[in-house]
Amino acid sequence: MRDNDLVIMGFVRGAFGVRGAVKVHADTEFVDSLFDYPVWWLGRDGDWKPYKFVDGQVQPKALVAQLEGVADRDVAEAMRGMQIAVPRGELPEAGEDEYYWSDLIGLRVENLQGEQFGSVTELMETGANDVLVVDDGPTRRLIPFVDAVVTSVELDAGRIVVDWGADY
Length: 168
What we know:
Subcellular location: Cytoplasm
Number of helices: 2
CATH topology of the largest domain: Elongation Factor Tu (Ef-tu), domain 3
Helix content: under 10%
Family: Belongs to the RimM family.
Subunit structure: Binds ribosomal protein uS19.
InterPro entries: PRC_barrel-like_sf, PRC_RimM, RimM, RimM_N, RimM_N_sf, Transl_B-barrel_sf
CATH class of the largest domain: Mainly Beta
Radius of gyration: 18 Å
Protein name: Ribosome maturation factor RimM
Distance between the termini: 41 Å
CATH superfamily of the largest domain: RimM
Number of strands: 12
Strand content: over 45%
């Protein structure tokens, strides 16, 4: 499986118990959304391996999942830090004017005056609204991802246009 065929959905935080369960941090809208996918791809540095999801539960600070073939704590602990991904084709279609965060990462950002701000390196959830983190070398901008600021998202063109001043 190639990196661009997969969407990162979280990562393994470590082992849980002695029977091979893993603690999972999910980067999903709903904390238990990962349980909807029968096969998880785990890996790091582009080296991916499929694992069948067997069972899981929501804990106060993490998800706990049992994966087929992971039967003891040592194996689960060795997975610490591995990213968890699912094939892009298994994700539901995004609605109109909705985007998967993973699709926004790497897009160029420019304002209405054509000034280039850099590329989206991550997104943050603040409670009030999501925020684009845009880096251009030494400059980092935090731009609210709201209709009043984001005038267009052009996935095919690889850019986001914002109503945002360079001096903000």
